[in-house]
Amino acid sequence: MSTYPPINYSDYLKVDELTDLQSLRSEAFGHPAHDEMLFIVIHQTYELWFKQILFELNSAITAFSAPTVDERDMLTINSRLDRIIEIQKILISQVDVLETMTPMDFLEFRDYLYPASGFQSAQFRLIENKLGLEQRLTYNKKDYKEALSANDHKKVSQTEGEASLFVLLEKWLERTPFLSIGKFDFWKDYRQAVEERLKNNLENIEAAGYDEETKKKHLQNFEQITKSFDALLDEAVYKKLQGEGSWRFSHKALSAALFIYLYRHEPIFQLPFNLMQNLQTIDENFTQWRYRHALMVHRMIGIKMGTGGSSGHQYLKAAGDKHKIFQDLNNLATFFIPKSSLPELPESIKSKLGFHY
Ligand code: HEM
Fold first, then answer.
1. Alpha carbon distance 246, 92 (integer Å)
2. To test the ligand 1 pocket, which listed residue (95, 119, 121, 283) has its Cβ within 8 A of the most ligand atoms?
3. Domain range 14-350, its CATH number among 1.25.40.10, 1.20.58.480, 2.30.290.10, 2.60.40.290
4. Distance, CA of 138 to CA of 286 (rounded, Å)
5. 40 lines ligand 1 (CB under 6 A)
6. Which pTM value belongs to this model?
7. Is any atom of ligand 1 closer than 6 Å to the C-beta of 300?
8. Which pLDDT belongs to residue 350?
């Protein structure tokens, strides 16, 4: 075995360089503000975690980009996503540390920051694009990339043209076999099971003793669900709803996702099920971070505009509502039925969903 030259902890981690990277603007302008150190360290820490998230995302995307995803890679992809989920928990809880800075402490150095803003975090935009965020809110009628430096603009633009995890998941779902094999018509049986369940729900609504107003709302909701369920079974209707923005996945991909969710207990679907659950969790965690950040911003600057020029708290709250990627997977839960009511799969198909020796 070869030997390697010894290395010291500080040299390996470049600790001196790292701890030399905090330059307080308040100090440079002759009015040192104690809390600016925390403000910089927190942001830099976020950027380091963003770097790690991108590293994991890129690795998952590479494995998932294969024309046929090797089943052996699924475990790796899932463990990369698991790691992102753990990092997100830190990102959310880290806001607590920043909130030990009071709004008035922040005012001691806020004026030195214009027009800089987290809105210009290129790594945050890369993460969004690699996950598959497309429809964004705008403010001042400008594209989000206009706030970026020329170099960041180039990097972020490039990811807009690349296949995101959303797109790769969609393609992969479209390739899922088993949806209509031979004489087995899953969708007919499933429709029957769901209709029975919806009828049951309707009876429960009638019997629950709601006041007229609540009952009316329940019935409207019931009608809406029945209508979107029809769309699920009819590609032409589905496409219309897709055009209106109700669904993002292709009809084929969504059907495959539903099939996997319903029969997730079948051995061959367990890892695909975990993968989609992980993507839902990542999406949800970013929404949690957005809301947490928006609440902190409200507390920190009230209803003032942001240094980046947005309406501040209001923009951030709206972005939390809108900037979601895997919503279709959440919406699928509308059509779930208990395992005990699921159509029994024919043996010829069931035997293909297990592991064989
Ligand atoms: C005192 C603390 C903070 C305040 C007052 C604040 C305020 C704001 C405001 C008002 C915006 C909207 C854009 C603008 O008008 O500037 C924004 C966006 C953003 N901030 Fe912060 N922020 C703070 C801390 C942080 C931290 C620690 C991070 C971590 C990286 C961060 C990341 C972001 C990101 C990524 C956006 C863009 C969000 C989007 O467009 O969806 N912010 N921030």
1. 29
2. 119
3. 1.20.58.480
4. 19
5. no
6. 0.95
7. yes
8. 83
